[in-house]
Amino acid sequence: MTGGLVQSVLVPGPTNSYNYTYSTITRNFTLAATGVGNVAGCPSSLPSQTSSVRVVSAITLPNSKQYQFSYDPIYGLLNKVTYPTGATVTYTWGVDPASEEMYLKVPKTVCNYVHSWPVIKKRIVTFDGITPAQEQDFAYTTIWGTGSQADLWITKTTTVTTKDLLRSGQPGFVDTYTYIPLSVDGHTQIP
Length: 191
Fold this sequence. Notes:
The protein has no helices and 13 strands. The chain is an all-beta fold. The chain has one domain. The strands form two sheets. Strands 1, 2, 3, 4, 5, 6, 7, 8, 9, 10 and 11 form an eleven-stranded antiparallel beta sheet that branches.
């Protein structure tokens, strides 16, 4: 986690208090983008995403046990949870290229872009904080429309490959999730 102000807040409980510890983290990344349709007068790239956000870095329970949270230094998104038992869940973030759409109003025109977006690429679970027990790998695809609908996605698919790292041969399975957009009043809405 990148530096920043650490602040604690006590929340009264039945006999003891919950203590929330906050930190300030920064994120700084640029989305790769491609203009779609008429790009005259449109910026050739999107602005960088740079900001500081306040996040929960720990929760101390009434029994003094603690949950700890860490964040990705590029995207500012949760990348590790440490449980009171010492177990952990770790997330690796990456970019899914050309996976989202964006409309940007500039004087006298609306600019359409297809752009990348941060996504979870890997999730690893440990029971003891050291030995990986389960791994999940995530893959994403986006199918875009054509012609006048080149800036609207038709389907999105997420494929999750899960492996049991503690069993001989690391058995696993694959789940595939497919999404379609909804149309409301003639406008495409992403579910």
